[in-house]
Amino acid sequence: MTRDFVYSTSPSHIVFGAGKLDTVGDWLDRIGCRRALVLSTPHQKADAERLAETLGSRAVGVFAGAVMHTPIDVTETAMDVVHQTGADCVVSLGGGSTTGLGKAIAYRTDLPQIVIPTTYAGSEVTPILGQTEAGRKTTVRAASILPEVVIYDPALTLGLPVAMSVTSGLNAMAHAVEALYAEDRNPVSSLMAIEGLRAFRESLPQLVAQPSDAEARAEALYGAWLCGTVLGTVGMALHHKICHTLGGTFDTPHADTHAIMLPHTAAFNAVAVPELLAPVAKMFGGSVGGGLWDFARAAGAPLALKDLGLSEADLDRAAEIATQSPYRNPRAIDRPSIRALLQDAWEGRRPA
Ligand code: NAD
Fold this sequence. Notes:
Layout: E1 13-16, H1 24-30, E2 36-39, H2 45-55, E3 59-63, H3 72-85, E4 89-94, H4 96-109, E5 113-117, E6 128-133, E7 136-141, E8 149-152, H5 162-180, H6 187-209, H7 214-233, H8 238-250, H9 254-270, H10 278-284, H11 288-298, H12 314-322, H13 335-347
Parallel strand pairs: 1-8, 2-3, 2-4, 4-5, 5-8
Antiparallel strand pairs: 6-7
The structure holds nicotinamide-adenine-dinucleotide.
């Protein structure tokens, strides 16, 4: 076997541990920021306000208007607040939607970001920003988008509802599965992907059984960091292309879409690269797709696209869009095979 790879590390600081929320002020000092604007969704506004209060004069305000898919009009409203307050950094408290807003501000201003993730989406460790305007999602990649500091405090995930924990966890696992066959993978990305999958393999069933299990929560968040890191490091393939198509054009919920599609896309690609996905088959038992599907079902994940409001008639168009300018994929794709894969996912069939 020849070894041939490029390995680049990210310049972020990663801080992990229960109670680390208390260190946000110290990190502001360390990165030389004095005027933080705290961001959140409307749902997490009270948490953002509490955080701003603990930061005292180092916080200049709270903007609690983050929503999914980073619509440009919301970013523009937030930018007005950045200018009015004279903020010199953003502190994003929440899931991928809040992180997305912070990244959109950083992309436009180069302001530093501290992110405190409360889901397993993984956006906090990627230099990628997805934005939507007039119903179209576009993606940009830039150094200014990568957050400078990420504070993982598992205590903040204790209240993440079980159903969202499961879909968010499967969303993260999809980053790791695709990293295993990424063309630009390297030995470290593959190690991180396997360790991330192992962390979720162990923790998701535990936190479904006992949502307040602090150790399981910490393990899942650790998995989220690993899976998010490989998402930011190597290229994604068919799975992410299909999920971007479904979310971007048909507005299906982000994490649920990933959760439903993962067993199907993994099964499809396992035909071409069984050796690269062998760790997944071993970890989840049986075939790659079947093992992942059984795991998702046991955790209570949604299994059928039809339950997300997608109509059967939409599948033709979805297959057409997903096969236009496709991402690099280990197995050749064509419209009929992707249409058939979508049909299976729509019906909620277990992959062989
Ligand atoms: P989200 O951020 O939209 O959160 C969903 C809801 O759950 C929100 O109302 C939020 O306030 C609430 N919530 C979050 N954490 C909570 C907690 N601990 N307790 C209670 N409620 C909580 O969902 P998400 O799946 O984390 O993020 C999805 C978005 O992230 C999408 O827009 C997606 O495109 C983006 N994303 C981007 C990247 C990237 O690298 N650019 C990666 C992954 C996801």
